[in-house]
Amino acid sequence: SVGINDFGEGFYCSENLDAAKKRGWAKMAKESVDSYAVSEFYYKEDASLKIKKFDNPDKEWLREIYYCRKYPCQYDVVIGPIADARIAIIMEDLEDEFRLIGNRLDGTKTVGEIKDEIFDRYAKRIAVGDISKMNQYVFVSKNAIQKCLSFKEGRIYERENKEIDRICADG
Length: 171
Prior knowledge:
Blueprint: E1 11-14, H1 17-31, E2 35-43, E3 51-53, H2 59-70, E4 77-81, H3 87-99, H4 111-125, E5 135-139, H5 142-148, E6 149-158, E7 163-168
Parallel strand pairs: 3-4
Antiparallel strand pairs: 1-5, 2-6, 4-5, 6-7
Helix pairs in contact: 2-4, 3-4
């Protein structure tokens, strides 16, 4: 959903099976259900799609998160670091600063230049150690899901984190 996830609406995947299991476990506990499922997919990049890759949590990464939380993402696939819980606070702080831009307009810089400086300042505050070393893959368009992903297998886990069922693509 727009406004909550790093890059807005989309199908979010992790590179790490253990991380996906932890997220499933947390969601199961939060929603008071008895099991959760983790699916694995094969990923194949498709050159016909608009794909954006971020290698680091830098100014451009932060800018993309900010705009994707406000507006629909302009890419089919986004690959990049997973933001930590502090990103919500940073987004609120950015909003506050952007509301005050009018006070800083003195004819020497454009609104875009001022916003660029603000993004740069906040990106420098994000310690790399606080951002996940794993990438997330966000499939924004249905077309991206159809062209890039193929099902490998799914597993269902119960409360004791014990695998209780497995569904494989090849039977």
